[in-house]
Amino acid sequence: MPNEKLPAKAPAKAVAKPVAKNPAKPEEPKGDRLQKILAQAGIASRRKAEEIILEGRVQVNGTTITDLGTRHDPHKDHIRVDGKLLQGPEKQRYYMLNKPRGYVTTLNDPEKRPTVMQLMANKKSGPHGDQVRLYPVGRLDYLSEGLLLMTNDGELANALSKAAAGVEKTYLVKVSGVPPASALDQIRRGIMIDRGRLDEVRSGRRDRIITAPAKLELVRGGDNPWYELTLTEGRNRQLRKMFEEIGHHVEKIRRIGYGALRLDVPPGEFRELTLGEVMALDRASKGKKVVPKKNLPEHAQLKAPVKKKPTFRKRVPRRP
Question: Of residues 32, 77, 141, 282, which has the active-site annotation?
């Protein structure tokens, strides 16, 4: 029929678009963090490099960077520290130094005392005679001596310095007087000490902590005995504080072991680490167990006490 209406068409159903099962992740920025680049270039350790960035001393392509999260390419970007153009990554170097007493473990000292850097000052890195920019891993105080790691590898230095790594450090310690067995057991189990520096403690700002368990054994007896002590921490003046808590003054400290390393160079001397030793340090920095040498080298042992020979004065005959 001409006037008959046709049925209206049903509205078309919306077709759902397929949802991607694995949506594309935003592309991560390329390059390395600025503090890592500075550490690899031998400017400073990773932690110190972060301070340098936050102080506004670093420019990338003419812009001052203070954000620790930015990434850059040292081969494409122009990076300057204190106005000086950053060179490419240095060849990584690792040394064992036998620090003598009377040296400070800093790059420079306001009191003009000798520094460990002066002991390493004449070290050249290669055939071109370029000097290696080194810094110490951890610290030994002014009166302590022994094994100190020196490197320009800021990443490894930072990893080894973290308490979480639990890297074993072994010391020979001479104390004044003979501590009772019960007091030594306190040190083995963990003892309460002041966390802060001595000047903070004297001013009344005390913050007490318990040290991690330690290995301790007698090496040489006598009125002022020597002990071998192994720690997995490195707190400020920790050894001295531990013995002071049990009423005994520490007379001498000598570090003889660091991870799998054992001190094997004379006082004031140093040597470059082998590839195997560097790999062992890297494993230790990641919390993996490393086995030190069983036989102690000469410079990691106590020398036998020297007995003084009695001296006799010649009798001069009297004049008659």
Answer: 141
